[in-house]
Write a structure and sequence with these properties.
The protein has two domains: 22-40 and 284-385, Lyase, Ornithine Decarboxylase, Chain A, domain 1 (Beta Barrel); 43-268, Alanine racemase (TIM Barrel). Helix 9 (207-230) links the parallel strand 8 (189-196) and strand 9 (237-240). Helix 5 runs parallel beside helix 6 and helix 6 packs across helix 7. It is 32% helix and 25% strand. The chain is of the alpha/beta class.
Length: 393
């Protein structure tokens, strides 16, 4: 049997049919009863992380745009906004569509869009979301967005390349040319300001090394803002930064808001960048997200196998690590398996044990799961759909 569908109607239906709200359990469950591997959130730690970041930006008069590409959950985004975040960021149009479907109003799409199919979706979103913004980094993309906007205004930020060579227009004169084009030639585009996400600094190991590089690269953004304002174009917003540089922003006085995401969950990669007080460990925020896995086999005395492989523990560089056990090394044993080398374990691991693993990299790990199991002291009362998982378009 075959079926047919109009492409646009199909895309729209994938948003309208999503689970966007928490699923309440008719009776509490223990994390010991969860099918593994399971993605769990320690709510006490999670809430401490949210409160600490929001208190920090409040104290320094900055805004927080929480980056939802990390957690992909309208439930979490709403909690962040309720605490005081000025809005959220989304990496893709499809992530933004999910957040808009959940009723979130202030959304910044942080990646440029140039094709008509996605630009039309941005225009459609602008009809539904009062606080929608999107970045532009090229005259071609800005012109086409302006043409398709027709009778509605679209708010934009100019995306500056901090030297990563990934997205963004070159700072200073090239950025000024784009700003002039938007200001003079694009009547439907409202230029709100600049975005400069210096992602090539977020994981520099050592606080002083990270701050030195960050300040150096950010200076181009400062010069660009001054140049644009000298040409009588207002720059109300200067957005950027992230978890790795959050505590450097107040001393610099450059950004109006921080695009932090990983602070809510943390992971091995961020923990290892070092902080102000400890050059080896970044302990400002605590790991609250874990993959709960079960020891399922022990073919050799010095090794034990977990049911969590590369299909549920994504990583760029770091290995998975247990939350509570040291003296072991986690090796990927394939798609479904992790092989734990028992060098000098601080705690015995037995068959059937369910153990929480700190994610190596939280963003892509989240994208591998359908649900979070948030718990308090090991008790789960509801399940949170990861509504924007897989939304890479």
């Amino acid at each position: 049997m075959t079926s047919t569908a109009n492409l646009n109607q199909f895309i729209e239906s994938t948003v309208t049919n999503l689970d966007l709200a928490a699923i309440q359990l008719d009776q509490p469950a223990s994390i010991d009863d969860l099918p593994t591997p399971a993605l769990i959130i320690d709510l006490d730690v999670f809430e401490r992380n949210l409160n600490k970041m929001q208190s920090h930006v409040n104290e320094h008069g900055m805004g927080l745009r929480c980056h939802t590409k990390m957690h992909k959950s309208p439930i979490i985004a709403k909690r962040q906004i309720e605490l005081g975040a000025i809005g959220i960021c989304c990496a893709t149009v499809s992530e933004a569509e999910v957040m808009a479907a959940a009723g979130i109003e202030n959304i910044l799409i942080t990646s440029p869009v140039v094709t008509d199919d996605k630009l039309r979706r941005v225009v459609a979103l602008a009809d539904k979301v009062a606080g929608l913004q999107i970045v532009v980094d090229h005259i071609q993309g800005a012109t086409r967005l302006n043409d398709l906007a027709e009778k509605r205004d679209i708010h934009v930020l100019i995306d500056l390349d901090p030297g990563m060579g990934r997205t963004g227009v070159e700072p200073c004169e090239p950025a000024l040319s784009l700003a002039k084009h938007i200001y003079q030639q694009c009547s439907r585009l409202q230029l709100d300001g600049l975005q400069m996400y210096i992602g090539n600094c977020m994981h520099v190991q050592g606080f002083e090394a990270r701050r030195s590089k960050y300040q150096h690269l950010l200076q181009k953004g400062v010069e660009t803002r001054a140049l644009i304002e000298a040409n009588d174009i207002e720059v109300k917003v200067f957005s950027g930064g992230g978890t790795g540089t959050y505590d450097m922003e107040p001393g610099l006085g450059v950004l109006t808001d921080i695009q932090a995401g990983s602070y809510a969950f943390m992971d091995v990669e961020y923990r290892d960048i070092g902080g102000q007080d400890n050059d080896q460990v970044f302990g400002d925020f605590e790991p609250s997200l874990f993959v709960l896995a079960t020891a399922i086999s022990q073919p050799q005395s010095r090794r034990i196998t977990m049911d969590a492989g590369i299909k549920c523990l994504a990583t760029d560089t770091s290995r998975p690590e247990f939350r509570d056990i040291e003296g072991v090394v986690y090796h990927f044993g394939g798609d479904e398996h992790g092989i734990v080398q028992l060098n000098n374990p601080s705690k015995e691991i037995k068959l059937g044990d369910r153990l929480p693993i700190i994610t190596p990299h939280c963003d892509p790990t989240v994208n591998l799961f359908d649900y979070y199991y948030p718990h308090r002291a090991g008790v789960v009362n509801e399940i949170w759909p990861i509504s924007a998982r897989g939304r890479s378009q």
